[in-house]
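Contributing: when you submit paired examples, paste them exactly as shown. First protein:
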Amino acid sequence: MQYYAIQLSGDGGVVRHPETEEPKAIEVGDLDDMQAAIDQACQQLECRHIFKGVITRGNGLGGYLVADAHELAEMGVQ
């Protein structure tokens, strides 16, 4: 399954593209399961996993939410 890392701001909100309002996301890759996606995202983005797919760059620095393609599509434009 295809996984993505959705960018989160320092306060935990989803960072969105200013023109399209779509969530800013980085492709993590086509991986077997969520744990493999989390591990890959942590390595790729130099972050650490803190809870249920949320990875952080450090206290107050924001981070990412690891999600599959279906979950990313559900977040779409609001």
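Second protein:
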Amino acid sequence: MTFDDRLLIRHYRQQAQAEKQLSQISADVDNSEGGEEAQRLFEQMIEVKSNLVSSFATSSGYLSYKHDTIKAVINGIQ
């Protein structure tokens, strides 16, 4: 696997967008009438949070792999 920092940048950008979406959904919840609209907003919130968790997990796994590989290379050189 090659290390491409664009991958992390893309994940961080997605995380920032998801956090903005959550803020917007929270504002919409405050202004909602209840009932079906509240259910729709709740489903949107779950979807955005699921995507955010997935993005955090992917970023974390990628960084861990990258750091372990770099550490192995450094230890191999010494």
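If you have annotations for the second protein, write them as plain sentences, like these:
The chain is about 90% helix and 0% strand.
The radius of gyration is 18 Å.
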